[in-house]
């Protein structure tokens, strides 16, 4: 085995472990951790990361969107050409401790190492703690990185919080961010100064576990379109008296639609398309439903992901066609509401090739894989910054308290991250 960069038992390993433990305790919820986007806890998590980074000798600064930058350079958000690495500080409600946080901790380790070692990256390393990546809080993902990259809109700032309904702009103000500054329409930093954006993240699916490999080198990130609340409107009626031909049953219409979508999905997969489809919420109106009532309305969510934006658009059209046909045959009406899009992204092939080469040289068991989940690296890549991602094996899925990453796997992936920085 080649010499480790971050050996188990080293000061770096202890620093990572204590950060994970401290932040887990700080943001503990009834189960798992809760770090709401642009919320008080997210601010506290960033402040703690900043204190630890400062005591390890790094300077720090917040950008106009409230994201935390840490590095050797005095002005870490400044124009000096550099490597940027990081991930997000927020979590889903009652989520896992490592989602996002692992990437910030790994970046801090690398940034500290880059100030101490004889062998260090040719470019300065900035560690970045991003805000607001999870769509669970305001219904839209990548808020912190979108603001940083000049992509936030008025409509985004007006988005309501999942429980308080207060707009994002109020939360931003309380987090010390001027929302007006986030609407510049252009990046808050000079992107030509970012030589690469590198993100370490836990894998949020089962592929590394299944393959028995510690590390994943990511080739691309799936994009998606999502409808949080589609309404199928039919007509309520007595379950005993209305003959079949006169019914406008919303439940049967939605079941029919979802079966047709699943059939099409199967066909598209067989044709070699990359596609995943989820309807994670389906419900009748609890104020009106009963076993003896034909459902007059069903609400459901619809989310479709693919690495290809063209596939997403074609599948979207096919769903609308099925809806139109069901409206005719079943006498119902579909109201789709707001469509939310997240772009797909391709990782820089030179960076992923280098990461794979590093794994081979270090004899780290790895696979090359796409990311089913969205990550901040997608926005950087689409903004023209060469971007790379390394995944860490994680058992029991993600966005839940059971997610589990071993510190040993984390350190192996951090080795890949640092070696990649050395190669830039
Ligand atoms: Zn994440």
Characterise this structure.
The two termini are 23 Å apart. The mean pLDDT is 95. The protein has helices spanning 11-26, 40-55, 101-116, 135-138, 143-148, 154-157, 168-174, 207-211, 250-270, 309-330, 349-362, 377-382, 407-422; strands at 59-62, 68-71, 82-88, 125-130, 194-202, 215-221, 223-233, 237-238, 276-278, 282-284, 293-294, 297-306, 333-335, 339-342, 345-346, 366-371, 387-392. The chain has 13 helices and 17 strands. It has two domains: 11-221 and 344-422, Aminopeptidase (3-Layer(aba) Sandwich), CATH 3.40.630; 224-342, Alpha-Beta Plaits. The radius of gyration is 23 Å and the shape is elongated. By secondary structure, it is α+β, with helices and mostly antiparallel strands. It binds zinc ion. Zinc ion binds at residues 88, 99-100, 133, 201.
